């Protein structure tokens, strides 16, 4: 496969780079770089609004709903530059998860009501799928929604719901029929997070972040008009949502950015007067990761080149998820190796901001690295655990 950027693509890259340089708010980028999690609601809104005003609020949406109509390659360039600029990449539960489902399966009223506020950054969403006994096996979920006149009444509990404390809305998988096969009885409901009966309880994660939550739902009344598509089809919509961004699971842009950051750190750290990056042991580690990351990038580009193909790529996407999530752990480990004993100085200052505030005498690049390393341990779990991805590969690629 040959792969070249055209002159127009290079020009596009310059335009995007300049835009981020001039318009990405420095305060938000700094917090994003050091991994403050979850980001402040106002920061998410402010940055989404800026992107929206430039016409780039949701590049991958269909043009008629406010998308850009860019080729897959341009979206790739956009994401590379977004990460190179340390500009915030957040709000994907809204723009990349729930919105494509509403566009594909929602009612006209839902498209009218929900897409504009997402695009403008006025409303932000969380994803309520996992439950205490239903994570990898979502068919086992127990939260129910019973129709009562024009409303559903929801009872149950969700867990690991990222950003539930700052989200305006949540998209929930609920059981609307317990008499049919598990997958057939699941529906996809849009729920306002301040509806009476919803209690959100944060779970503090290892790096001190307060982005994860338990969500309790007790007699929560939701208008029937908030059901997406047909009752009982939630499983199909959820699969569509998870398949929509086939290459996102590779975390390519994060991995490239963080590898570069590890190299930048190692170029400034000295060992006996020698730059760490020039020492053979460290250079070998970098080379190992760099080669694998290059392979990951080419795999992503090959999938992007098949943008319009109907070929079933599920096994490939699972392979990308495995390598991409392991790569997150490797690049953040490399940063730890580069920083040495300073990674032990980890203090979340009770703010859920990881190591946002570090020793003032240390270089700025120390900030956020330890919390980034710690939260990356979760990358092989969320979005489909590694073992489950291996099962998919075994079945689809090898027929086992
Ligand atoms: C940081 C983070 C953010 C998250 N954000 C969200 C969110 O916003 N919304 C949401 O709904 N969920 C979210 N989740 C939940 C996530 O989707 C689940 O953790 C994930 O699907 C795994 O489910 P589980 O935790 O129930 O583990 P389980 O499914 O109980 O798995 C436990 C272990 O068993 C293994 N296992 C499970 N089934 C099999 C099998 N068939 N064969 C072999 N091994 C198996 C798994 O690989 C894992 O190692 C988040 C999780 C994390 C860690």
Automatic annotation (TrEMBL):
Residues 6-122 form the Acyl-CoA dehydrogenase/oxidase N-terminal domain. One of its GO terms (molecular function) is oxidoreductase activity, acting on the CH-CH group of donors. Its cofactor is FAD. SUPFAM superfamilies: Acyl-CoA dehydrogenase C-terminal domain-like, Acyl-CoA dehydrogenase NM domain-like. Residues 126-220 form the Acyl-CoA oxidase/dehydrogenase middle domain. It holds the Pfam family Acyl-CoA_dh_M. Gene3D superfamilies: Acyl-CoA dehydrogenase/oxidase, N-terminal domain, Butyryl-CoA Dehydrogenase, subunit A, domain 2, Butyryl-CoA Dehydrogenase, subunit A, domain 3. Keywords: FAD, Flavoprotein, Oxidoreductase. One of its GO terms (cellular component) is plasma membrane. Residues 232-395 form the Acyl-CoA dehydrogenase/oxidase C-terminal domain. Belongs to the acyl-CoA dehydrogenase family. This is Acyl-CoA dehydrogenase. It comes from Paraburkholderia diazotrophica.
